[in-house]
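Encode chain A's predicted structure.
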Amino acid sequence: MILGFDDGSRTVAGAEHLLHQVVEALGSPAGVIGCTHFVRSGELPHVACSLALPGTAHLDPARLDPDLLPEGVLTAEGAALAAAEHAARDGGRVVLFPGRDDLPGTLTVGDLLARTAIDRVLVLAQPEPPAEDVVLVTNDHVRPVWRDGLMTLLAMPAPGGRIAPAEVPNPTPCCADHV
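Encoded structure for chain A:
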């Protein structure tokens, strides 16, 4: 079962916080896959969330603290979009996934694929996936995306022949004051 929810978060950080709150409210089940989704319809662009449990596990929205989610959030248009993209595996940033919590700061691509639910790694502007012995520097921030039905970590070249996730933690906002 995949659950979509949407509180109108204007930032990725806000949506990730909501995702973690919902998972905690559900008892932090093992094997959960949680995503954020950019919603461009409606009055204001924002970020919605989706959550899936493996196998026959059941998500009971009634277990959620009513104060955690605004009224109607489980049926909102953004929530439906998030759940549909997650189900089709064709959209969404994967924030929570099996193996995420045990990732070291540096490991090989082969180790990443063996330890986590990530299906593949692609390096931006490179036609072929990296070899399994290529070193990945995670910066403790790994956010794969759903692409072509596969959980895909997009990476970029890093110094020393290494690679790093393309999404960096705490990016500088566009047009920020640079001192």
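The helical segments are 12-25, 77-88, 109-115.
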